[in-house]
């Protein structure tokens, strides 16, 4: 139910307006002048204010000025006599939504109230959206104090001011997308869209339609014309994550789009101009994939104009504690926790194969395990080195039990354990098991 504040020094007028509004289901409160109204607005939330202009102590104009000065999100409508219409018009220039002249008709007031309340709802939704955006921006903050990261961020800021293609290489969990977003924010395109695309997550058969769009009827299920990511990101930045997993067939068309700055929708003939800044990222060794023929050399040269490589967390140990404290503050349940010296030593002594992503997960898990103690200790973080809690085996060999084993079940279990230890970093998990990433993926498919 909408709550409306009626402000007028004439008691009869206040009551008349209140009865009229309450009959339509609105909740009302009353104030005899601007000073009383301002005090009420400071202690309660109102969806709109209807106020007379001429009142003792504080008039309607001054009330409006105070509401705006205090950034109170409440639309104001004036009631005025014909003789003071000019004052009402001046007030609208200062931020009033509308004005109603005396004597007034009930239908006119109700129509104005309905329109103003719609505006009030839009203002409320806008505030909520801004809060969400601020929260999202906070989550995208890059935390660092170490010299390697200072040098990287300096380079990222410099290249951000240009329009050059950037290739960000590095292990999973090092913050490649955060770095790409920083580059976008530093660019002249920052007011436009940042569009992330995970190339590894797109089916090989849908890569072209995802990137370039498609015409109606281009294939079964293409019920309408659809723009691709290049068109959607036009004017802004297109972030192609896991570019190393892009199918070879799609690489040639991507190269042409980057060279010509034009795309052609699947099933269409028209070439559509696009203006995008492309930032790519990969956790693969692209030069090796170029040598093996899995990645086009000409595309590699096109996207590798300005290479950046975020260092793994183990090479930026000075950032571990600031990052851990940041993740604690971001957790509602972790804001009152502190890291003990033993916890800090344990974190600095760990290799972090899953990098910053693994650290974030570890802090969240540690807060749960610490319970109501208010402290995170080395014991709380013992899950980082589960082997240290177990006695070492008598030898490095594996003894086959008399009853036998299920080799498939053992492999699946080891794969899952490796993923847990590495914070779901498949490259690091494969390394733990002495496998290539490709063989590890096959093992995971069998496990599923």
UniProtKB/TrEMBL annotation:
Coiled coil: none annotated. Residues 142-368 form the Sigma-54 factor interaction domain. It holds the Pfam family Sigma54_activat. Keywords: ATP-binding, DNA-binding, Nucleotide-binding, Phosphoprotein, Transcription, Transcription regulation, Two-component regulatory system. Residues 3-117 form the Response regulatory domain. One of its GO terms (biological process) is regulation of DNA-templated transcription. GO terms for molecular function: ATP binding; sequence-specific DNA binding. The modification 4-aspartylphosphate is found at residue 52. InterPro entries: AAA+_ATPase, AAA_lid_NorR, CheY-like_superfamily, Homeodomain-like_sf, HTH_Fis, P-loop_NTPase, Sig_transdc_resp-reg_receiver, Sigma_54_int. PANTHER family: TRANSCRIPTIONAL REGULATORY PROTEIN. This is Sigma-54-dependent Fis family transcriptional re gulator. It comes from Desulfonema ishimotonii.
């Amino acid at each position: 139910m909408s709550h409306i504040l009626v402000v007028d020094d004439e008691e009869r007028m206040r009551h008349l307006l209140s009865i009229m509004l309450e009959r339509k289901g609105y909740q009302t409160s009353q104030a005899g002048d601007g000073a009383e109204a301002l005090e009420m607005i400071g202690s309660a939330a109102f969806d709109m204010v209807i106020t007379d202009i001429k009142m003792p102590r504080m008039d309607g104009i001054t009330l409006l000025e105070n509401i705006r000065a205090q950034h109170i999100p409440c639309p104001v409508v004036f009631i005025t006599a014909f003789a003071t219409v000019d004052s009402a018009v001046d007030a609208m220039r200062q931020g009033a939504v509308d004005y109603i002249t005396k004597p007034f008709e009930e239908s006119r007031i109700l129509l104005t109230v309905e329109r103003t309340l719609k505006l009030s709802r839009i203002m409320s939704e806008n505030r909520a959206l801004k809060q969400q955006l601020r929260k999202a921006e906070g989550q995208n903050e890059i935390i660092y104090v170490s010299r390697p990261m200072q040098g990287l961020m300096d380079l990222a800021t410099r290249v951000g001011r240009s329009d050059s293609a950037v290739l960000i290489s590095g292990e999973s969990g090092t913050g490649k997308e955060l770095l790409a977003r920083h580059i976008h924010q530093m660019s002249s395109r920052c007011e436009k869209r940042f569009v992330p695309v995970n190339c590894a997550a797109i089916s090989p058969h849908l890569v072209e339609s995802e990137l370039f769009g498609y015409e109606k009827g281009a294939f079964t299920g293409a019920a309408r014309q659809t723009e691709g990511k290049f068109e959607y990101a036009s004017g802004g930045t297109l972030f192609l994550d896991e570019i190393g997993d892009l199918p070879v067939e799609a690489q040639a068309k991507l190269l042409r789009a980057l060279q010509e700055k034009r795309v052609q929708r699947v099933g269409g003939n028209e070439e559509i101009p696009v203006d995008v800044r492309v930032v790519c990222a990969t956790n693969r060794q692209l030069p090796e994939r170029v040598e093996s023929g899995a990645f086009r050399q000409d595309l590699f040269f096109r996207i590798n104009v300005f290479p950046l490589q975020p260092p793994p967390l183990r090479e930026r140990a000075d950032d571990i504690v600031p990052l851990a404290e940041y993740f604690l503050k971001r957790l509602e349940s972790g804001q009152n926790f502190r890291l003990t010296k033993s916890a800090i030593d344990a974190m600095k002594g760990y290799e972090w194969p899953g990098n910053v992503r693994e650290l974030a997960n570890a802090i969240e898990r540690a807060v749960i395990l610490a319970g109501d103690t208010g402290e995170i200790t080395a014991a709380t973080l013992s899950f980082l080195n589960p082997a240290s809690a177990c006695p070492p085996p008598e030898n490095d060999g594996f003894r086959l039990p008399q009853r036998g084993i299920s080799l498939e079940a053992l492999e699946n279990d080891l794969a899952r354990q490796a993923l847990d230890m590495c914070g779901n970093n498949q490259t690091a998990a494969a390394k733990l098991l002495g496998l290539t990433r490709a063989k590890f993926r096959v093992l995971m498919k069998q496990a599923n």
